[in-house]
Amino acid sequence: MKKKLFALLTVGILSLSLLACAGNGGDDAPADEPAVTDDAATTDETPDDTDADDVAPTSDVTLEFQQWWGVELPEGFLADLVSRFTDETGIQIELLSNPFADTRTQIMAGAATATMADVVGLDGSWVYDFANQGAISNLTQLMADIGMDDSELSAQVQFEGNTYMIPATNFAYPMFVNLDILEEAGITDMPTTWSEFIAASEQVVANTDASGFAIPLEASSPHGVQNQYLSWLWASGGRFMEDGRPNLVGNSDLIATTEFVKDMFDNGVIAPGSFTMREQDMVEEFTNGRVAFMISSLAHLFMITEGAPDMNIGFIDIPVMDGYTGQSGMTVANWGLGVAANSPHQEEAMMFIEFLLSPEINSALVVAASAFPGNVNADPDYSASPPLFLDAFEIFQRNFAINEFTGLPTAEDLMRSMNEELLLFLDGDTATVGEMLEATQARWEPVFN
Fold this sequence. Notes:
This protein is an alpha+beta fold. The chain has helices spanning 69-72, 77-89, 100-113, 127-132, 139-146, 179-185, 194-207, 224-235, 252-266, 279-287, 301-307, 346-357, 359-369, 387-397, 411-426, 433-448, and strands at 5-9, 62-67, 92-97, 119-122, 155-159, 162-172, 175-178, 241-242, 245-246, 293-295, 313-316, 329-339, 372-373, 400-402.
């Protein structure tokens, strides 16, 4: 029997305990590009109660923190947070910030060579592999070692009964809408069903230079499977797991979802280049006004509004299968934290994670990231957040959080094999959706035996 990974997910702030698709954006920068080190900066967005008369503690420890967060947060924000930690502890933090896909590649390389940064940003789908190979540390033990109270955590991702990742921020994946494109196309009513969505997308294509929707399906970064393909399934109340095992073959909801996605391709409403597109490419297409609708993480809201400050953006519920009247599920993802097994500074690394998860710091982080807290006692002040964020929060409130990949063994490999079979079906190499799902299930089954 293979080792099993499971996640403890509770709902906090709403109770806002969201999972991680992720969250996650891709990028076309080469994977072997040197990591970007954030320069320290000071902003007014983080709490600062440091007494100038206090004598700062000293330490000869420097921790490397490898993540994609610094790229997606306001410039200088993460550097300001870690400077606060250094002021309080004397421990230096070297930020290694690159886009999501490149960070994943670099962390994987570090895991294989035991050169991983001391603290790493993690996606929930990576945890099984890294924990199974002994690349990341048992955080349950480290929390006990430093006396950290884990009752405040909104979620913990576990392997064989111990925690290996703690979500720091939690993101929802709503439907972004370029309202300017819809106005140009003459669309006044937002689509609420699949048939209405295809009709609206066809109207966009017929009357503008934009595409209706984008699905990033580049195989090396297969998160489009969960975020832009299976989001349609979950929004209509469907599931692909049953009693802890994959339920793909004969799954009527999944069959209908896959046929719907194929219809969008066949009707020419999908943005070109899907087979080589990563999530970051999709966000850039949307930001540049070439896509009308996009399912994406709220983590990208700041990037979009900064890149296109004059764009008229809105959020809507993901349209559902015609005839569905139940509650919709919304894909969730997170920015998780782990400690490298090769780090010589295990306790200091855990102290840094405790700092990022403390109520005050976590509140500041999630406001800046347009996310929801990883600490159930955090009290983020969203009053200055863009109205768009509050709109997305309202949509989340009437949906339920879901991501069936969280906690599955070799979750990213499962996404990748489904991605590959989906591409064959969309390209016509696999004749029917039934054959596509049978092939996918055959590749998944050994993982669960």
